[in-house]
Prior knowledge:
Blueprint: H1 12-32, H2 76-80, H3 95-100, H4 111-120, H5 131-139, E1 142-148, H6 155-165, H7 171-183, H8 190-204, E2 212-216, E3 221-225, H9 234-241, E4 246-252, H10 257-263, H11 267-277, E5 283-288, H12 299-315, E6 324-328, H13 354-359, E7 373-378, E8 381-385, E9 390-392, E10 396-400, E11 404-412, E12 418-419, E13 421-423, E14 427-433, E15 445-447, E16 454-465, E17 477-482, E18 485-498, E19 518-531, H14 538-541, E20 542-547, E21 550-561
Parallel strand pairs: 1-3, 1-4, 4-5, 5-6
Antiparallel strand pairs: 2-3, 7-8, 7-15, 8-14, 9-13, 10-11, 10-15, 11-12, 11-14, 16-19, 16-21, 17-18, 17-20, 18-19, 20-21
Bound molecules: guanosine-5'-diphosphate.
Guanosine-5'-diphosphate binds next to helix 6.
Amino acid sequence: MSTQANNDVTTRDTWEEAEEAAETTLAQQTSKLSLNANAAEFRPNVYAKEFIPSWLPQPAQTLSEPVVEKSESETLADILVEGTPPLPKPAPVTENETEKKTAPSSTIATASTSTQITESAPEEQDEHVDAELLKELYGKEHLNVVFIGHVDAGKSTMGGNLLYITGMVDQRTMEKYEREAKEQGRESWYLSWALDTNKEERAKGKTVECGRAYFETDKRRYTILDAPGHKNYVPSMIGGASQADVAVLVISARKGEFETGFERGGQTREHALLVRTLGVNRLIVVVNKMDDPTVCWSKARYDECVTKLTPFLKGSGYNPATDLQFMPVSGYTGANLKDRVSEEVCSWYSGPSLLEYLDNLQALDRKVDAALMMPIDMGTVVVGKIESGKVSKGQTVLIMPNRRAVEVSLVYNELEEEIKVGLCGDNVRLRLRGIEEEDISTGFVVCSTLAPVKTTTAFEAQLAILEHKNILCAGYSAVLHVHACVEEVSISALLHSLDRKTGRRSKRPPQFVKKGQKVIARLESSAPICVESYEDYPQLGRFTLRDEGKTIAIGKITKIIESE
Ligand code: GDP
C-alpha cells in the first residue's frame, strides 16, 4: 500500500458490475434502515460532495472540459455512486469571467428578477483575495472527515486521541480526563472525553453546531463530523455525512465485536451504504482495537475483517481498487494514527498511518473560482459550508431566495478565528450587514450577486424509489431534503418511467411508481427553494424525499422550471 491514493481509473465496467449488486443491496438494506426519527427533528444536508475526489484521477486541465453526456439510462448506482462525478456545466467561471459574459445560464431566475439583479448588483470585491493568500490557504486545505461505524467500534476514542496527538488537547487536560474517568470507573473511556467535552463546549456557543471537533496537522486542517453509532442517530448521521469529504469507517477487530457490528445486523452496513448514498466517494476502513488481547495485531484477524468487508463494500458501490483503503490501527494506544505502527508491534503492515494517509490525499477539486454558493445552516451570523466559490470580508453577496444584497462584515473559520476569505469546502460563519435575523432561515443560500443560485417552486427530477409500502402517484407529498433546506413537496406529475435494464424512458407517463423503480417526475414545492440542476452543481441538485420518518426516494434534479 502506498501513501498516495490509488490512481486507477474507475472503469465503467467496474461500476456497472457494482451497480446490480448495489441496486439489490440498497433495496434490501435501505428497507431495513431504522430512519425512524421524526423528519422535523433533523436537518440533513443532503448535498453531494461534488468535489471531484482527488483520488479519482482527473488531471486539472480536464476539469473544465465537457463531460460525456449522461443519458437518462443512468442507473440507480449512477445516482448513488459518483463513480465518475459529473463536472459542473457550464464549467466554473471566475467572477470576473462571469462579469464579461452576458446572462450566464445559471444566473437567470426570472426575467423580472434578473433585471433586479442587474440593477442592484453591487460590485463583488474579489481584490481581497490575492493569489498569495489563496496559495497560503490552499496549502493547508480543509478536510471534513466523518467517522462512521457500529456503536463501541471506537470512534470517539479515536477522535479524542487524534485531538490529543495533534496537540488540540494538552497532556494536562488529558491526564485530568484520565483521573476523572478512573474515578467514575470508566478508565478506558478517557480519550473519548476529549471529543465529548469539545462537543459540549461548542454546543454552548449559539452559532456553532455541536458535534464537531477540529484538529490540524502540518499539512491540513480537519473537521471531525459527528456520526453517532446508535441506531436512533442515523438521521443525524445523514447530516454529518452529507458534509463530509471522506469517511472513516471504524471496525472493531475485537473478538465478537466485528461480528456484532458487521455480520449480525450492526450499523456498519447501514452507515457504509448511507455515506455512499450521500455522495462520499472515499472510504478509509480502519480495523481498530488491534491492540486488544483478543487480537494482538494478528494478521489473520485483520485479513478476516478485510475479506469479509470487501465484497459488501463493493456491493454498496465502492470500488475496492480506487475508493477503499484498509489499515490496522489502535485508536486507544494511538498506534498507526499519526506515527506508523512500529515493527515490533506489527511486522506485517508497512502502509501509511491514518493521518499520513489523510494528509496525502490529493487536493480535492474545489470550485474556488466558481460563483459563491453557501447554503445557510443557521442563525443571523450565518453558518454553513461553502459549496462553491469563495467569500471574503467586505464582499457583497446575495441572500437567496429573498434576493437581498448584504455585506459580509466578518468571516470566521471553524475555530472561530477571523479570516479574510473562506474557500469552497470550508465551514464558515459570516457576520452579515444589512439584513435582520428574521429575514434569513435555514436552507437559504448565500451566493454571488452575479451568478445567484436558482430559485424555484417546480423542477423535474429523476427519482429512485427506495422504500414505500404503497405505490406512488401524482399528488403524493413528502419532505424534500436538499442541502440545508427542508421543504414540503408534492409530485405533480409522473413524466416517464425508466426501464430497469436499458434505462430507456417510457413514451407514456406511468400511472404510478413503486419501490425499486425509477421515474422522471415533476415536483412542486410549497415555497420557493434554492436549487440547481445536479449536472451544474451536484451538491445543490441531489436530494432525498422522506415521509413518515423514512427515506422514500433519492433523486437528482434534471431540470429547473423557472417560475413565471
Ligand atoms: P464509539 O461508540 O464508536 O464512539 O466507541 P468508543 O470510542 O466509546 O469506545 C468503546 C469502547 O471501546 C471503550 O471502552 C473504549 O475504551 C474501547 N476502545 C476504543 N478503541 C479501542 C482500541 O483501539 N483498543 C482497545 N483495546 N479498546 C478500545
